[in-house]
Design brief:
- The complex is a heterodimer of chains A (470) and B (250).
- Helix content of chain A is 28%, strand content 32%.
- Chain A has 470 residues and is an alpha/beta fold.
- In chain A, the strands form three sheets. In chain A, strands 4, 5, 7, 9, 10, 12, 14, 15, 17, 19 and 21 form an eleven-stranded mixed beta sheet that branches. In chain A, strands 6-8-11-13-16-18-20-22 form an eight-stranded parallel beta sheet, covered by helices on one side. A three-stranded antiparallel beta sheet of chain A has the order 1-2-3, with no helix packed on it.
- The radius of gyration of chain A is 22 Å and the shape is globular.
- With 250 residues, chain B is α/β, with parallel strands linked by helices.
- Chain B has one domain: Rossmann fold, CATH 3.40.50.300.
- In chain B, the strands form two sheets. A six-stranded mixed beta sheet of chain B has the order 6-7-8-3-9-10, with helices on both faces. A four-stranded antiparallel beta sheet of chain B has the order 2-1-4-5, with helices on one face.
- In chain B, β4 and β5 form a beta hairpin.
- In chain B, α3 packs parallel to α5.
- Chain B is globular, with a radius of gyration of 18 Å.
- Classes of the chains: A alpha/beta (470), B alpha/beta (250).
- Bound molecules: adenosine-5'-diphosphate and magnesium ion.
- Magnesium ion (MG) binds next to α1 of chain B.
């Protein structure tokens, strides 16, 4: 196989890695750490055009030049020299469901994840291409001219589109982690929806499972052309087991005039992971962009989906929910920039902290001069389940225009003794009672998700809470 | 059914219940009447197992079992129920969702969804509640009357063996009072006991008690038949204080 040859040429060695035991089938770069040689290897391995290699190298420079940000969560334990920057699972290694460890299977069982998704999550290498459902959907999308593939294929098959938009919403040197991603990105999704096309069924990343799916540095670009509609659902809701302790993705969305993009994520990282993600969207005239963002797990998450409202009448919405258990810090929020008249926005943030967990809401609302008639509302609610749990709110607001309407509301609530007693007096155990209060708390977000995701979100939080009991 | 003996309860160092005794037989309805601050809600909460109170002495037996060490949910599963004077709000949790969870947690076998749905509809009809009510968030923005109806709705759904009703009648207009009373009478039978805690005798016109007790300063100071409620209504709590106040002090 030509692919195997190039891997050997590059000196990439076989890497054995499993969920928790290192017995699996992955390729990785020959050494930890990052330098121009590693970046060149990655690019060459993918047979990328010269401009992408240059782009990566330039990004690497700005990654190396930039200091690690100090304003957010504690990154002092994050050692960039201790990370493999390119790990690629081998396809079709004959791994079967039976090889998956029992505790992982149990987790999937508890979550009620469909077998198809379980296989892919477990790295069994299931072939969704052959699935009937996927096939008919794919045909429908093809007929409508919709492009939906992994980013590496996107670059190969739609180079012009990628070159036109890649890195235009989030420049490589935007921040240290966007620079890192731009240097070593792999996987992620590329989506293009032609003018006027409405995709009713959400595009889900697991429909296009392949070797590049589970990247640590995935890169997603979604372009919704004029008057189109797409709902993209990212990733998976099962615990994601990674060898690397760093996940750093970049997601760029472009909603052209009258288009609407909804992007939903529920992520659940293993508790040793730094999850540092840059997500940004541009909404042009009368376009709408909605981020629905659920953050569970990880050691530290720093994620602030942004919408730049650049065209008159554009609308941006950010709904985020975070759960911080023992030892975890969820530093999340949202950023909205009103840069045109009559634009509107809504940020709703809900966080739950338990044990020694800590949640931070960090938001920026900016209204440029001339964005007359703009409306904005920010609501952040924190729920504390324990005396030791902690929450902080940093709502930055910069308003340069007088004729605007902005509202900000923040609440902190505790699960009260009386509330629990009330629920327990009806037969619910203490854990069930807490879970009920929590589910109620996130209901405004859960009801924005497709039903099965809402149910999974609730279950996931419950599982996380069960884990923290013992 | 319920046997309380020499119950002493403290909260934040102050003694609220000072040696309270009460026996409720199977199928009996007891009324406890007392002025504000006499310890009625404290008694209700302690019976149901609220963790905030310190029981310093005495016993509580339910169906022959000492329940003192049991958590509220364990008491609920034994068949105890408390209709709260001030039910808590639980935002984002619909009444229907709550009822489903509650019913299934006290039952041995889960109820099939269709049956559950029918049961909720049926009981809501008894309580003259709009079906849309089931989709509202638990107690959030409920009027006083709605909260009380909702408490009785839960009681009808859970079918307890013993219901303690803490001032369920307070703040209700006559119509609501009749509906609430109808709900209680619905369960009345040889297998159902109730302790109706009230400030006024008004509700006892609709739910006829077998026994009436008067509570003052953390104790039951006198007991009698339903006529005692009328006497009390006539003479007022000042009479009780004069008559029994010294006993309560001693
Ligand atoms: N959480 C509490 N902390 C301190 N004192 C309390 C608390 N709850 C009740 N009390 C006191 O206990 C006494 C009895 O209260 P309560 O049981 O509510 O009486 P009732 O229901 O008969 O009006 C009152 O003096 C009240 O102030
Ligand atoms: Mg009271």
């Amino acid at each position: 196989m030509p692919e195997d040859k190039s891997i050997q040429e590059l000196g990439l060695e076989e890497y054995k890695y499993g969920f928790h035991d290192p017995e699996d089938y992955f390729f990785r770069t020959p050494r930890k750490g990052i330098d121009p040689e590693i970046v060149a290897m990655i690019s060459k391995h993918k047979n990328e055009p010269e401009w992408m290699l240059e782009y990566r190298l330039k990004a690497l420079q700005s990654f190396l030049d930039r200091p690690t940000p100090q304003w957010g969560g504690d990154l002092s334990d994050l050692d960039f020299d201790e990370i493999y920057y390119y790990i690629r699972p081998m396809e079709n290694q004959g791994r079967t469901w039976d090889d998956v460890p029992d505790d992982i299977k149990n987790t999937f069982e508890k979550l009620g994840i469909p077998q198809a998704e379980r296989d892919s999550l477990a790295g069994v290498g299931a072939q969704y291409e052959s699935e009937v459902v996927y096939h008919s959907l794919k045909e429908e999308w093809n007929k409508a001219g919709v492009v939906f593939m992994d980013m590496d294929s996107g670059l190969r098959e739609h180079e012009d589109l990628v070159r036109e938009y890649f890195g235009t919403i989030i420049p490589a040197d935007d921040n240290k982690f966007s620079a890192l991603n731009s240097a070593v990105w792999s996987g992620g999704s590329f989506v293009y929806v032609p003018p006027g096309v409405h995709i009713d069924i959400p595009l889900q990343a697991y429909f296009r499972i392949n070797a590049e799916n589970m990247g640590q540095f995935e890169r997603t670009l979604i372009i919704a052309d004029e008057g189109s509609y797409v709902h993209y659902i990212e990733g998976c809701t099962a615990p994601t087991y990674t060898s690397n302790s760093l996940h750093s993705a970049v997601v760029e969305l472009i909603a052209k005039p009258n288009a609407r993009i909804r992007y939903s994520t529920i992520q659940n990282w293993s508790h040793n992971t730094y999850n540092l993600v840059t997500k940004r969207a541009v909404a042009q005239k009368n376009a709408t962009v909605e981020w629905v963002d659920g953050n569970l797990g990880s050691k530290l998450t720093m994620k602030y989906p942004a919408v730049y409202l650049t065209g008159e009448g554009a609308r941006g919405e950010i709904l985020s929910v975070a759960y911080a258990g023992d030892g975890q810090h969820q530093d999340a929020g949202g950023k909205i920039v009103h840069a045109a008249p009559n634009t509107s926005s809504l940020i709703t943030s809900k966080s739950i902290s338990r044990g020694t967990g800590r949640s931070t809401y960090r938001g920026l609302l900016k209204v440029h001069e001339g964005a007359v008639g703009s409306k904005s509302r920010v609501e952040c609610d924190a729920l504390l389940l324990d005396e030791n749990a902690r929450t902080d709110t940093y709502p930055y607001i910069e308003i340069e225009e007088k004729k605007v309407n902005t509202e900000h509301e923040a609440t902190v609530s505790k699960v009260g003794e009386d509330q629990l007693f009330y629920l327990m007096s009806r037969g619910l155990s203490e854990e069930e009672a807490i879970a009920m209060v929590v589910n109620g708390f996130i209901e405004p977000i859960a009801k924005e998700l497709p039903l099965e995701y809402a149910i999974e979100l609730n279950r996931l939080i419950q599982l996380e809470m069960e884990g923290s009991v013992g | 059914m319920l046997k309380i003996d020499n119950l002493h309860v403290e909260i934040e160092g102050g003694e609220i219940l000072k040696g309270l005794g009460l026996e409720v037989g199977k199928g009996e309805i007891h009324a406890i009447m007392g002025p504000n601050g006499s310890g009625k809600s404290t008694l209700s909460n302690v019976l149901m197992g609220h963790p905030r109170y310190d029981v310093t002495d005495g016993t509580i037996e339910f169906m022959g079992e000492d329940v003192m060490e049991l958590e509220a949910d364990e008491r609920a599963r034994l068949g105890m129920f408390l209709a709260f004077q001030y039910p808590s709000e639980v935002p984002g949790v619909s009444v229907a969702n709550f009822l489903r969870t509650a019913v299934n947690s006290v039952r041995e076998k889960e109820l099939a969804p269709m049956e559950m749905y029918r049961l909720i509809q049926e009981k809501m009809k008894i309580m003259q509640m709009d079906p849309k009510f089931a989709e509202r968030y638990l107690n959030e923005g409920f009027s006083g009357g709605e909260k009380k109806r909702n408490e009785i709705l839960q009681m009808l759904m859970l079918e307890p063996k013993l219901a303690i009703m803490d001032e369920t009648d307070s703040g209700l207009d006559i119509d609501a009072l009749q509906v609430v009373s109808k709900g209680v009478n619905e369960l009345r039978g040889p297998e159902f006991s109730a302790v109706i805690i009230t400030h006024y005798q008004r509700i006892l016109r609709y739910i006829e008690p077998d026994h009436v007790h008067v509570m003052l300063d953390g104790r039951i100071v006198t007991s009698g038949g339903k006529d005692l409620a009328l006497t009390l209504e006539d003479k007022g709590y000042d009479w009780v204080r004069q008559e029994f106040g010294s006993a309560a002090q001693s």
